[in-house]
Amino acid sequence: MSLIKVNDPLESTAKFLLASISEVTASLSCLVIEREKFIQFGCFIYRASPIIMELQATEDAPRKAAEILQSISQKVDIAKDLVSKCQTSQSIVSDPELKLIISQLEEVTSQIGEDLSMIPPSTFEGQKYAAVAFRSLSKEMRHVNFQITQEKVQAEQERGVENIQEQNEQARAGTDLYSSNVGTSLTNSMPLSASDSGEPFQSSGGSSMKPPSMNINTTENRFSHQFIEPMYRSFYCPLSKKIMDDPVTVQTGITYERKAIQDWLDKFEDSAPVFCPATGKKLTSRVLETNMALKTTIEEWKDRNELGRIKMARAALSLASSSSMILEAIKDLQEICERKVYSKVQVCNTGMLPLLVKLLAFKDRGVRTALLDLLRQLAEDDNDSKEMVAGIMDLSVLVRLLSSSHQPTRCAALLLLLELSKTQQIRESIGSISGAILVLITNKYNCTDSFASEKADEILMNLESHPNNVKLMAENGHVEPLLKHLTEGSNEMKQEMAMYLGEICLHHDNQTYVSERAVSSLVTMVQSDDDLTRTAGYKALARISTHHPNSKVMFEAGIIPLLTEEIFNHQISDGMNSSKAEAASILANIISSGLDLDLVKANAQGHTMVSDYIVYNIVHMLKSSAPKLNISLLKILLSMTKFEKSMATIVSVLKEGQGSYALIELINNPEEELSLEAIKLLQTLSSFMGHMISESICKTSGLPENLIRIIPSTINQVTEKDAISAKFLAELPHQNLTLNVAIINKGLVPDVLHKIEKAQQVGTRSSKYGNTYLEGLVGILVRLTTTLYDPQILTLAMDYNFTAVFTDLLTKTSSHEVRRLSANGLENLSVQSVNLSKPPQVKEPSFKKVFSMPKSLSFRSSRRRKMRVPICHVHRGTCSSKSTFCLIEAKAVEGLLSCLHNENAKVVEAALSALYTLLDDKVDVEMSLNLLNGVDLVQHVLNVVKDHREESVLQNSFSIIEKFLARDSRITNSPTSVISQDKMLHVALVSALHRGDEAMKQVAERILRHLNRMPHDSIPELTTATYTYTRF
């Protein structure tokens, strides 16, 4: 190549040298053998080019600059000759000859390094980065060491031109043209300095390593402005002070970033003169021409420096010494990723992803947000990138960030998750994270953040493609995807969604909506010929039917005839039994919701749900059906008992056939729910066929003892069945002597008393059914007191001191029902006291008169003394709480008086009835009145009249008051004046006189006349009147 003749020898030498370097580097692409060594040499001389250009452009070049460049030029020419010897067009190079060439190339490289070291450091004054790069390059070239690898040179040459082209492309993509040592040395170097000069610069002049004036914080730009190859002045926009992406040239020849100059021009009106911001010259045209040469140069420069920038960013992230350092590194990586897709591949291949994921734990929220944005960039473009990001990071961390209080972080996390959710495999992983679906649904319904709501909705739509995610969405309140697949999906999808709907528990607010959307499709499914489809449909309908308001929707959909057809007409088999049981369960739920069964058509023949046909079929099926089906059938019958017509039919069917025995036998069934439903139905029917049920129970093996002895030993373990069983046995007709004797003969009374004692000790509040359980136990004892005429029962009541038991329960329990039952039991016992109390029989003491003494010497009184035996003056005989059930001896009066203050009218009524037994004509009424007056019974009763308006309570109260008024003269401290002065009593008496029944009117009239509030002409003899009171 001939030298270009110019006046300045330094400039001519520099241009010649740069041309030679370009020629050598271009020729390296054709090499096959020892390619890496030649490429390494090419990198060295290529990196020397900016230094040569700096010497060419500087005004204060060193005196020996031309000589230095001339020396380097000679070495480059030698290298050019060495490269030419290895060209593919030459003959095959032997191993010894190749080793010699590489050795000579190594020597040439070292000599060029020596020449570079002769350049004074002052040449780069004010450009610290350039000085560091220069020193590093010089040192590396001086100590270069090329070693020939043991490769087969001959084989490499024979690969052919096609393979050579492929190798060239791979080398360009994968070879690091920059020494790792240089990168390391630059990690700690200072950022590129910026001149404070405000003078405009020309892009067409000589290229300089010194950028234009920039007001940039050095810490924030530490990594974005450090490159392996120096940046040039012409790369910077004079306006934005940033490297240009779209350089355009204006009329003056100055190049700007398109957006920056366009913004400048927009400041001037169309008719106003426009000036170049750099030169100040007037612009006659606003045309912007793309500077393709500079744009290409900048792009190539970025490509050459990209890998180095990635490495430096990685080093900055590894140090993570400050938030600003991390943010600047992330920003640099984002700029790299925006350029082209392959840049993202390079970032991932450098091991950057694990480092980025690790930094998500950084405390600075801005750093976390930037990291999430960068990860999203890396995950874009293809599924492989998404799977790579999702495989390295813990998706649960990303889910937690969705709940961040920092909105930018939350939004960035949503965007990343949205990107990842575009891949099917990752969708399943996202849904499997605990709480992920719930957090997304929460964001979806976030009214305060529309962006988060929109993106969360998009993510959920992506996740819908996995069926299990749909189920999780429905469980967390987002039912729309499930309903969409149920109504619009394939048959397989409909089956799966119906099964899910049958398993999940829906929120109350969604129940009706789901019913309205799904019932029509489900009704179609249950009419299918496919067993799986029908089973799934019935399962979903069974779940929907548990919410009673849905019954109307299901009824209007015409489902009831389908259900009865399934229950009664389809033959039971392994495949159909489940559907039959589900159909019965749905029907039971619909009926129990309160529909008018007289209007509900059960089949095409016109039968209604309360018709004899339906009832007979259900009762008949109870004898031969599986437990699950029987449970639903019993629930259907129980719901039918609310209707008079169906109740009469049920009772008739059970009485005519053996239905009652079949029903009672279900009590012993090991399936607890089945046994419970049978007891509930029998309990309801006992009002109509109680004696028949009682007799049947006594004839059934294991009963009635199984109703008591299956009850747990501690009150804390009481179940609903335990409580209902005891209550059922207690409420069967009390006067059924057969059942009462059976209870005694089975030895149940000791168990009952023991459980009552335990319940009193630990209380009943610890169990949901504890009170009901205790009420049933006490009720069993009370029922026995109604048949005390039986000697066996009477003896048992005495042996176990029922009077003391009931008295204790009056004061030690808080249950109104237990206190009422106890008062009833005491009433029944007290009625027997008169018959059981006998006058004492006094026996005269007998003395054997061995000898007689004179009367004057006798120590004994002449009058015989009788032995004193205590007697009950009320019952006129010997009494005790145990043997005669005496309320006075049992101290029960105080407990009964306390019951008069109870707010429950039934408790008060029972207590008054028990107290009235002490005023019965068979007892000594005068003694009883004085005794009860001593405990202020009248005032207690007057308070009852004041607090209660129930007719039965008032009638019992009036009867007691009348007793006191009838024997006023025989009572010490007669309460007549207190009675006559009570104004509320007068009001109650007048009200009873006007609005009460006949018995109430009569007793009210007698009391008013006794109090001189009515004429006395027709007052009957009070002493001979018959007094009545309400009994249990």
UniProtKB/TrEMBL annotation:
Instruction: Specify the pathway.
Output: Protein modification; protein ubiquitination
Instruction: Tell me the keywords, alphabetical order.
Output: Repeat, Transferase, Ubl conjugation pathway
What GO terms are given for molecular function? ubiquitin protein ligase activity
In which residue ranges is the amino acid composition biased (Low complexity)? 203-214
Entry-linked InterPro entries = ARM-like (IPR011989), ARM-type_fold (IPR016024), Armadillo (IPR000225), RING-Ubox_PUB (IPR045210), U-box_domain_protein (IPR052608), Ubox_domain (IPR003613), Znf_RING/FYVE/PHD (IPR013083)
Record EC number: 2.3.2.27
Q: Which Gene3D superfamilies match?
A: Leucine-rich Repeat Variant, Zinc/RING finger domain, C3HC4 (zinc finger)
Q: What GO biological process term is on the record, naming one?
A: protein ubiquitination
Is Transferase one of the keywords? yes
Q: Which residues form the U-box domain?
A: 230-308
| Reactions catalysed | S-ubiquitinyl-[E2 ubiquitin-conjugating enzyme]-L-cysteine + [acceptor protein]-L-lysine = [E2 ubiquitin-conjugating enzyme]-L-cysteine + N(6)-ubiquitinyl-[acceptor protein]-L-lysine
Signal peptide segment: none
Q: Which SMART domains match?
A: ARM, Ubox
Q: Where is this region: Disordered?
A: 188-215
Please indicate which superkingdom the organism of origin belongs to: Eukaryota
Q: Which protein are we looking at?
A: RING-type E3 ubiquitin transferase
- Species in which this protein is naturally found: Trapa incisa
